[in-house]
Each structure stands twice: as C-alpha cells, then as structure tokens.
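Trying the structure run again after the queue cleared.
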Amino acid sequence: MSIREDEAVAAGAAAADGAEHAVHRPGTVLGAAAVAGVQAVALAVWGLYIMAAPLFASGGDLVRAEAGGVVLLLCALLPGIAVRGLWQLKRWGRGPAATLNLCCLPVGYTVWQQGGSLVWVGILVMATAIAGLVCLVHPRTSAALDVHRRA
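Done. Tokens:
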C-alpha cells in the first residue's frame, strides 16, 4: 500500500470510530447553547456599536464609549464560554449560561418599562432569557450533563 492509501484507510477508520462514539445532544442542550450563542453575538454587536457610534456622531464621549464597548465585548465572553461547555456536554457550561440569563431578566424588564419602541427589545430580551433558563433546567439537559460527567 502506498502512503496515500494508508492515510485514506486511517481517515476512514477514524471517521467510523467517531461515528460509533457520536455524542447525543438533546434538543434542550442545543436550545440552551443556541440562546447563549445569540446572547454572545448580541453583546458583541452592541459593544461594537457603542464603540463606533461616537466616531460617526459629533459630541460623543469617545473614552466612555470605548470603555463601555470593551466591557460589553468582555461580557460577550461569558455566553461564549457557556456555548462551548454546553456543546461539549460539560456540567460547568450550565453556570455561565444561567448567570447571564438571570441577569437578562431585570435588564429586559427595565428596557420594557422605558416604553416606546424599546418595549419590543425588552420583551425579546426577557423571552430569550426565559427560553434559555427553561432549556437549562429541563430534565433532559440535567440528564445529559450528569451522564457525561460520570463517563
């Protein structure tokens, strides 16, 4: 056999081995990871928007905007870490996701109370937080994370 044939056989064996040991992720875990992913992207986009806004408008405080944007970008790491942990079915992935979802509830409520066009933003923030929490406390999620911990 040539080197290329050996590599092809090894790659096929590795793919077959990976298929045998495929990890089953329940829909609730995928849902919690998806919500955390959306939250990570939203925080990152918001942080970038806050950093860029003073560059296009006059009278903006550039230093405060940059500092606030950096804080939001750092906050986007929390749900990003949660997505990784949940995707890998690590028990610790639930903590950062639950923390962020619990923090989103009062933020969404405060935005909703402002009224006007922000009402829908507040409702959306609270709805995603509730959806994320429901997915995180679902028995299938608990079972998937506990089974993987024992393995």
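The first helix runs from residue 3 to 20. Worth checking whether this holds up in the mutant runs.
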